[in-house]
Amino acid sequence: MPDVSDLVGRLTREEKLSLVRGARDPEGTATGYLPGVERVGVPEFRMVDGPLGVRIPEQRATAFPAALALAATFDPSLAGEQGAATAREARALGQDALLAPGMNLVRVPHCGRNFEYFSEDPLLSARFAAATVEGIQSEGVVATAKHFVANNQESGRTTVSAEVDERTLRELYLPSFEAAVDAGVGSVMTAYNRVNGTHTSDHRWLLRDVLKGEWGFEGYVVSDWHGIETTVGAANAGLDVEMPGVPMTEVVDAVEMADLNFDSERLDGVPDGRKAGLFGEPLAEAIDAGEVPPERLDDMVRRVLGQLARFGHLDGVGERERDSVHRSVVDSPEHRELAERAAAQAMVLLENDGLLPLPEDADVAVIGPNVDEAKLGGGGSAETTPFRSVSPAEGLTARAGGEVTVLRGAPRIPHRSLFDRLPLGDDSTPREWETGEAQGRNGGTDQGDDAVESDRPSLDDAVEAAREADAAVVFVRDATTEGRDRDDLRLPGEQDELVESVAAANENTAVVVRSGGPVELPWRQKVSAVLQAWYPGQADGEAVASVLYGDRDPGGRLPITFAPEGSYPTADERRYPGVDDRAHYEEGVFVGYRHFDAADAEPTYPFGYGRSYATFDYGDAEATGERSVRVTVENVSERDGREVVQAYVRPPTAPGDVERPVRELAGFESVEIPAGESRAVDLDLDELAFSRYDPEAGWTVDPGTYVVEVGRSSRDARSTVELRR
Ligand code: BGC
User: Fold this and answer.
1) End-to-end CA distance of the chain
2) 53, 199, 346, 549: least buried by Cβ within 10 Å?
3) Are 33 and 80 within 8 A, CB to CB?
4) Which residues are 611's β-sheet partners?
């Protein structure tokens, strides 16, 4: 491996500056591009979106299930597989770094990007973040942990300040990033927002003290796209690379700026050419003026070159491994299979009165406004255009033994995207936006045959078809996107009415929900089954059919709480979306199930919940160490099944007036258990669940008795065991 310090010493200042600020990619494939320095053998470097699959304009790649779906598997090994597969495709498409994974905590149920994130729980998020990073980097591609930190809403995303205390940051919002650093992540992306008044790319405490200091992060910190505000502040705080480096006015027009949710006024007063050029000439000037030490520029360059060296990019221009990787890895049978397996394992069975698995020979009415489209993902930088996708109609038709009738029954729910062309001005309300042309940045989403039914689908026809069938399956969905939060948690359009009408016509009605976060399901007691499928990606219909017909057990459990909109801890304007551009995280550590437990409130479906087609009996849990337990789980049914065994720690009362959550997820394991068999499941309990962060004393484990609840969800303990600390 070349000596990076030596290399830095051989670079001119001009060359150094070219390695810390993005430029236009002559190939036009990269999301972010560094030109390299050919003179000394530093090659070009390409960074590409995103977390659900590679996003390159005019290129296709596998559309994997959303990150939130992955986390629902409670099986981080799948995240490792998906990360590795995405990285193989990125490399085959000439890219060197992935702008993934996203790992912000799901704090606000309305957040338009929840589908890109893992969970409301820091441990679940951390485990998936680490596994994804390891998977991506195992293929020689740099992973990017984003968005550092407290980027929990899209409303006012470039201006809002998360007002959050240190304990809350440490216990909830930072752990997934620390886990990514521990897993060796090569890059961290700052967030668009501020934290306690300071923009994240100017935030010394976050970047210099915590990330690089305490955690010992040695990679490079990259800005979010156009997400840098100052030259001197960012350079001295610890930002290493500015992206995309190309002035905003050159890459986006005014309409797109509105889409991107940029506060254009923020750019007023910023001299032309610097609107996204703060690490170019201005950095040179700041160094000359003595405002940024020259060693800082060397450090930035060393960090970038360090990652290039680590992943073999400095071993000879033109001879890089990527050149020998054949394009056929993209859309390989292995990647298709993985996309389908992960999507199926992520599905959470919320309700089932016995209708599912569907009988082989049942005549089925397959209904839904978008029944002819796979739900690939949400809108924005995580959009991927796949080579192939399977719609619910196609998937069910291919799998069913009986007759299948397909009807939409309600007007289509358009895909919403950050990249849609919006009407200008303040009257571009979400409703108008929803009816706009769906147009992905990759040139449309190409989701199948529009000709299932006319544009004015008839509810009566759908109801009639449901009445005549043995069973009805209704597919509903939301339409979330980067850049906008949801207005409410209801399903958009006429979907609730559609479900009610179909359920009234056929008592064997199952509903498949494809959503990027929690949704309200007002009819859930009136239907026979509800299957939560998230955003399944290209394999949608195929994966859903395999679970509906019982080829696979629904292996997913909720990584987020489902509850009525008004009962979330952020149902208060000060907290969300905030007032005067400040979102007050006054709920502290009581986010997600921590809130519902503390409030003793009944959620609709609790964190960790999900049914199986099999039935499991739990034995008595026993302690096997200071932080480990074992429990034997028996599948007492006649079906093979998949169980997610979960352990939650209930801490003793903390001293003084420190309030702690009732319980915290401490360990979990997804296990397949054949019919009639038992498995001894060992759970290592994470120190995070035992500890609390004391701003004075640091991480603290209070002495006392910790009750470990072992069971099927955060509200379904089957056995408890006490551990003394
Ligand atoms: C998003 C990032 C993304 C970047 C590049 C930004 O708008 O916040 O997640 O990686 O764009 O597309």
Assistant:
1) 46
2) 549
3) no
4) 349
Is the pLDDT at 428 greater than 70? The verdict is no
What is the mean pLDDT of the segment spanning 61-81? Answer: 98
- Three-class secondary structure of residue 175 per DSSP: helix
Residue with tokens 């590795």: 84
Distance from the CA of 260 to the center of ligand 1, in angstroms? 10
The answer to whether 577 touches 123, Cβ cutoff 8 Å, is no
Residue 185, token pair as written in the block: 């992540």
Q: Look up residue 360 and give its amino acid.
A: E
What's the pLDDT score for residue 294?
97
The helix-helix angle for 333-345 and 76-92 (nearest 10°) equals 150
> How far does the centroid of ligand 1 lie from the alpha carbon of residue 227, in Å?
9
Q: Whose CA is nearest to atom 9 of ligand 1?
A: 381
Paired tokens of 589: 């550590």
How far is residue 645's CA from residue 587's CA, in Å, rounded to a whole number?
Answer: 29
> Across the chain, what does the average pLDDT equal?
91
Q: Give the CA-trace dihedral at 218, 223, 228, 230, to 10 degrees.
A: 10
Q: Which stretch of DSSP H or E encloses residue 616?
A: strand 616-618
DSSP symbols for 80-123: HHHHHHHHHHHHHTT-SEE---B------TT-TTGGGS--SSHH
Q: Would residue 420 show up in a list of annotated catalytic residues for this protein?
A: no
Cis peptide bond N-terminal to 357, omega within 30:
yes
CB-count exposure of residue 56 (10 Å: 0-12, 13-18, 19+): buried
Mean pLDDT over 652-664 rounds to: 95
HEC per residue, 517-569? CCCCCCCCCCCCEEEECCCCCCCHHHHHHHHHCCCCCCCCCCCCCECCHHHCC
Query: Beta strand 622-625 with 628-635: parallel, antiparallel or unpaired?
Result: antiparallel
Q: Is the dihedral of CA 21, 143, 50, 232 positive or negative?
A: negative
Structure tokens at 114: 């929840």
Does the Cβ of 381 fall within 6 Å of ligand 1? yes
Is the pLDDT reported for residue 442 higher than 50? Answer: no
Nearest ligand 1 atom to alpha carbon 147: 9
219 closest CA partner among 178, 181, 173, 175: 181
For a mutational test of ligand 1's pocket, the pick from 47, 49, 103, i.e. the residue with the most ligand atoms closer than 8 A to its C-beta, is 49
Structure tokens at 518: 């929690």
Cα distance between residue 692 and residue 701, in whole Å:
7
For residue 248, the model assigns a pLDDT of: 67
What is the Å distance from ligand 1's center to 695 Cα? 32
161-163 β-sheet, strand order: 198-199, 194-195, 161-163, 582-584
Q: Give CA separation, 516 vs 72, 477, 532, 545, 575, in Å.
A: 12, 9, 10, 20, 21
Amino acid occupying residue 353:
D
Q: Return the pLDDT at 276.
A: 59
Among 381, 417, 482, which is best to mutate for testing ligand 1, by the most ligand atoms less than 8 A from CB?
Answer: 381
> Is the minimum distance from the CB of 706 to ligand 1 under 6 angstroms?
no
**Would you say 162 and 585 are in contact if contact means Cβ atoms under 8 Å apart?**
yes
Please list the residues that pair with 678 across neighbouring strands.
634
**Cβ-based neighbours of 183, under 8 Å, separated by 6 or more:** 129, 130, 131, 133, 134
